[in-house]
Amino acid sequence: MSRRSGVLEFAVLGLLRESPMHGYELRKRLNTSLGVFRAFSYGSLYPCLKALVQRGWLVEEPSAQPEEQLTPRAQAGSLAGRRAKIVYRLTAEGKEHFEDLLSQTGPDTWEDEHFGVRFAFFGQTSRDVRMRVLEGRRSRLEERLAKMRASLARTRERLDDYTLELQRHGMESVEREVRWLTELIESERKGSERAGDERTRRPARETGSDRPSSGPSDNTDR
Amino acid sequence: MSRRSGVLEFAVLGLLRESPMHGYELRKRLNTSLGVFRAFSYGSLYPCLKALVQRGWLVEEPSAQPEEQLTPRAQAGSLAGRRAKIVYRLTAEGKEHFEDLLSQTGPDTWEDEHFGVRFAFFGQTSRDVRMRVLEGRRSRLEERLAKMRASLARTRERLDDYTLELQRHGMESVEREVRWLTELIESERKGSERAGDERTRRPARETGSDRPSSGPSDNTDR
DNA sequence: AATTTCATGTAATTCGTTACATGATTCC
DNA sequence: GGAATCATGTAACGAATTACATGAAATT
Hints:
2 copies of one chain form a homodimer.
Chain A lengths: L6 H12 L2 E2 H10 L9 H13 L3 E5 L23 E5 L1 H12 L8 H9 L6 H29 L5 H33 L29
Chain B binds a DNA duplex through helix 2 and helix 3.
Pfam families (chains A, B): PadR
Protein name (chains A, B): PadR family transcriptional regulator
Keywords (chains A, B): Coiled coil
């Protein structure tokens, strides 16, 4: 019934923070912006949106434009009227909640399921949190590497070539991610040495006042 | 109620084909042999074993070892030997079923969830099936790369640095796996040119007779 | 006019996990 | 004798999917 998930919820809040959107577009963004890692279907998305509305983090804004504007073929081809699209917008409570989520640095934040989506919103995350998440993930992966090496040493002889190759390739992937993280961490450190505040992708606050005064729809940017 | 999963079921059958085992050890093997990719818990494993027994693919063999073998703490008051460890053994039908599974080359076989476990049992898989699976996966990944590149070209400007970096790293991972697959495919091809049959890791049949004659317990190899 | 794409949703199912509950055996 | 590890299970939940159902708008 609830469908509030963690990853999906986080991503939805994060995307809607940037700009209001309706479900269909949201889903496309989820599956591209958020990269290779996750793909969500409508069956997950719509119930999730409903749940978020119920908690007061989103509001539905039926894109019900005045019907006097009967546009058989949409003059100017612009994004004016269509079927009752429901545009979702983040409320003030929603914003606050998302910022709470952004500031979390608990142990799951660097697990496989969460790390990708956390990283995707690093643009809105403070530098110290970014550092903790990156370093947390790196040491998590190093732990994993140690276990793999140990297990490999114990069982090397009993395994056939394919199993071994699978293991080898898996370890290499993890090692590669560790190197990637190390580069990112160093680059974060360099960024924080010079420059006290600005110049490092600020948290993107104040995109207008608390609520867009005029119609927040028509911002579907397509 | 059923819990027959696909991946877990496949892996259990495959491991038990090599030798009978009880649940606890099976789980350890699942989480090491099968590599980084999957970790299963008892909550999944035991119900799965039960289901496989019900279908006639496994039999439970209560490991009632001869109690003459005095252990220092031993029999006093207990029913038979130790606690009833349940050793699972593949039946003839189970073997047949697993071979059916091994010979499948449908489109899911190279999807993310299945590919790892399929590869882990390549040692028991015929060469032509191996080839189809490897090539299927490679072209699946190439498709994915094409989509990613297209989407990246469309949206490059709208994305912040972190999202972009995530995307870049994701693509590189996929490219790396493609190169890996290409090497494997070539090596398979080379292997099949010379040598008509032997010398390419035969399917590992006949590890003794149909059933291990002596007690299959104490094979816990630790 | 027909097809594709946009758009929203629900019900049932899948594939797993965590937390709980229990007890035996081995190590120190 | 106490802790760690071995060993087996069940109930409740979680987070998503697939398949289904519907219909409007744009493209051809």
